[in-house]
Amino acid sequence: MLGLLANNTSGPVAVELLRYAVPLGVGLASAAFLSFKISSNGGYSTDKSIPTVRIRSGDSTHDKEFNESSDEFLTMCEATYGPVFNLSIYGQKLTVVSAPLAREVFMSDGFSFTDALDDVSGVMTFMMSFVKSNRFDDNKMIHEVIRENLTPNLPLFTPRIVKHLTENVERDLGHCDHKLVKNPTLIMQNMIAQAMADVFMGSEIAKDPEVLTTFIDAAFDFGKVVQSGNNKDFWKNLSIKFKYGTGTSPMMKHVQVLVRAATPVVLERRRQEAEAAEKGVEWERPLDVLQKLLDSYDRYNFVDLEDICGQVLTLILASVHTTTDTSTNLLYYLACFPEHAQTLYEEQQRVINEQAAEREAQRQKKLDAGEVKFKQDFVGTDLDPEHDHDLAAPTVKKLVYMDSFVREVFRFRIDRLSLIHSARQSTTLSNGMTISKGSKAIVNIRSCHMNPDQVDEAPEFRPWRFVGKSKAATKASSDYLPFGMGKHACPGRFLAIQELKTVGAMMVARYSKIEMEKPEDRLKALLSQIGDPVDSGLYFTSRA
Ligand code: HEM
């Protein structure tokens, strides 16, 4: 069934490895997960006006109290100490910044998420080992490439994404009669990797089984290095630089897979482009990120194809694992709230029926006007009746209940403390407190997502709360931070949400029931974080 997967991602080992995979879109990698990698770097702000929360007698840190009930503990801290306070938690000394000041952490240039990630894991040295250009640009190039090329072309990418998702779900899940899938992540990762491979490298290269394996395994291999201890330790860091700074990075094998698969395709594209130029006709540029990078060769001073494939690898690390994790989590929400799955199904039926009727009306209009002679002349055109019921981009856009559901899942499933930022310079918040240079601020996401002033009945999962509001699942704001916000807000969120909504729509269309294998794990499933897979499998039952 999952024949294309490499051995190490197709069994229980994969689940274990998930714990260690830290993709670049590390917003999801919880502070708890990163904790064991840091001991003394940074620390809390030296500003004396920031209170330090008293440690409970008998404890040596705040971990135990936090773990007993993070909501209660954080509410108590805010009530007693105000929105900014210091904690000794996750093996670190962190300054917690809560709403309404949390947004300032994202909006100020004084704070960096990437620096914090590097501080706790030494990840940048490793990242630098497989790209040759744009190394210290603070993700500017990759951000631009996504913003200017990928996001605006999403409507064109959507049919290809849908095709891969559909093919995969039909092959790996198919018709089910209360079929137990022990590890739905494996199905999701295959689907997402294939769709991403098509978008990033183009349809032809995406067919290559080794490329697909790279899309799946890269984050695991990356995680294995990044998780291996306190990389900021001087000797450890030096050894990482020595080991991975010289082209011997374990990621290079993935770059080489991409280079090998891309080389003939790129040569053929060059040939076609030259031929078109010779004939004076316009060459129809292939639609994928690879082509966009090739076209931007001079703009970004890329060094060679290996460099370009290294940049694609960065994108893979940011996208595949994060989107796989959230798609899998979405399935658990559908299982936990079957009554809402029915509403989502009905919405989809309605929207698709409207689409089909609209297309039929357009065909009729053309026939009436004599623009098209016979009905069968529409076959193979944009108005081919075969595609009347497809999930096209405008259709996915109209799934407002699905959008609200997805946003509510992200809101509800928050990691209470997350998105650590390093202070690049001393920065004074609007309440007068200063986060001193070199210290670490962590965002109290609970105070943002569960803020009773902004969110009605915040502790409740209310999936339709955003319907009719201008709060799309892609829209970052101070009460919705799964993608961060401000200048560095995740540029891939438009693609990620498009895929998530499509996965959700496909699943409710195909399966009348998705159920938890172990209903007692319900709460864990709802609140599980990346790298912390749920123990319970899922049962699937097809619609009649
Ligand atoms: C559900 C899936 C995803 C989640 C939850 C997620 C989350 C995040 C978060 C929290 C950040 C940090 C934002 C900050 O610094 O404030 C981030 C950054 C980033 N993400 Fe995503 N991401 C996802 C998918 C993707 C995808 C599909 C792509 C690529 C197509 C991508 C590319 C990036 C890049 C390049 C950055 C760095 C941006 C910068 O530093 O300017 N992500 N992501």
From TrEMBL:
This is Cytochrome P450. CDD domains: CYP503A1-like. InterPro entries: Cyt_P450, Cyt_P450_CS, Cyt_P450_E_grp-IV, Cyt_P450_sf. Heme binds at C490. Signal peptide: none annotated. It holds the Pfam family p450. It comes from the Eukaryota. Its cofactor is heme. Keywords: Heme, Iron, Metal-binding, Monooxygenase, Oxidoreductase. SUPFAM superfamilies: Cytochrome P450. Belongs to the cytochrome P450 family. One of its GO terms (molecular function) is iron ion binding. It comes from Lunasporangiospora selenospora.
